[in-house]
Write a sequence for this structure.
């Protein structure tokens, strides 16, 4: 099997987890192969080869300068505060050299580096939710998708904030080496293999703004605590002591989300937790979350998470049922 070189670009102000998360996945994939040749060769490089300081103050020592780095199969651009005013020399290097890689991968705001280098024009991409609007505004040629934790478009893959880089790296290992090896890596990293790429970046409670008016805030909280109740607009409006039309308009204005969408997200979030933490059947979970039928819950899961409830549960628990694998260091 061909050994794939993963080149990780380092710069001052990089987010350390954007680097170490994917690196541990690729290194783990090398470890679980036992005596076989490691599937990945990991190489880190900064512009001049000098140590860099991450956004948390941690110092990282690269293997070489970018000029002396080996030709990569996979070029990985992490994010961090250093992407806000990236060194023009780094952008020039990416513009010239990145197209030679067989696969381009960004984590978090590393997508901004690719965008500045023109590598995402005409493509679908994502980044940390807090920067999606900026990416779309500054680079209209990119089709920015703010919800998924990662997006694949041909040989280019972009991921959302921080830990989403681990999800993307696991997806790439599964693509390269197969599900069994990816499962073993996930198991020893104690992570879920794998959150579907189009899973929302955050829960409904985090995605929506908190309403300013107390009646609307109370309704938001009541929805999260009673997903099994009748949550139609008329019922919620009565609880807020507003007319249905006024309530729907005010709720969307203050939370940035329609009541229906908020309810949908809350119910899916609650159902996910039940599937992860209990042995309740799909029909029982659907009743507990206010779905009229298991089919209604299945449609909501496929729409938001890209996987049916049974498949979601199987993916979540798969790492813990995987066969014993060689222990990874640490």
């Amino acid at each position: 099997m061909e050994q794939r070189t993963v080149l990780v670009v380092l710069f001052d102000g990089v987010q350390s987890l954007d680097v170490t998360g994917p690196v541990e996945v690729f290194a783990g994939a090398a470890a679980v192969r036992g005596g076989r040749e490691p599937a990945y060769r990991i190489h880190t490089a900064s512009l001049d080869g000098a140590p860099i300081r991450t956004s948390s103050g941690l110092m990282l020592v690269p293997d070489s300068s970018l000029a002396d780095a080996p030709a990569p199969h996979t070029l990985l651009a992490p994010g961090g505060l250093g992407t806000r005013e990236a060194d023009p020399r780094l952008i020039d290097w990416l513009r010239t050299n990145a197209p030679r890689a067989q696969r381009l991968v960004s984590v978090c705001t590393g997508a901004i580096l690719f965008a500045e280098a023109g590598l995402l024009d005409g493509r679908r991409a994502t980044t940390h939710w807090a920067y999606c609007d900026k990416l779309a505004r500054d680079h209209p040629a990119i089709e920015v998708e703010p919800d998924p934790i990662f997006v694949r478009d041909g040989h280019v893959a972009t991921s959302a904030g921080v830990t989403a880089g681990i999800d993307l790296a696991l997806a790439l290992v599964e693509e390269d080496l197969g599900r069994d090896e990816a499962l073993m890596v996930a198991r020893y990293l104690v992570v879920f293999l794998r959150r579907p790429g189009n899973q929302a970046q955050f829960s409904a409670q985090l995605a929506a703004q908190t309403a300013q008016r107390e009646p609307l805030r109370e309704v938001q909280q009541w929805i999260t605590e009673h997903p099994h109740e009748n949550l139609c607009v008329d019922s919620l409006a009565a609880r807020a002591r507003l007319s249905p039309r006024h309530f729907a308009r005010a709720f969307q204005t203050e939370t940035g989300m329609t009541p229906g969408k908020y309810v949908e997200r809350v119910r899916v979030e609650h159902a996910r937790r039940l599937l992860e933490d209990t042995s309740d059947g799909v029909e029982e979970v659907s009743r507990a979350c206010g779905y009229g039928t298991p089919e209604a819950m299945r449609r909501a899961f496929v729409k938001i998470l890209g996987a049916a409830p049974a498949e979601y549960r199987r993916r979540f628990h798969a790492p813990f049922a995987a066969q014993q694998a060689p222990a990874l260091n640490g």
Observations:
- The first strand starts at residue 4 and ends at 9.
- The chain has two domains: 4-189, 204-305.
- The radius of gyration is 22 Å.
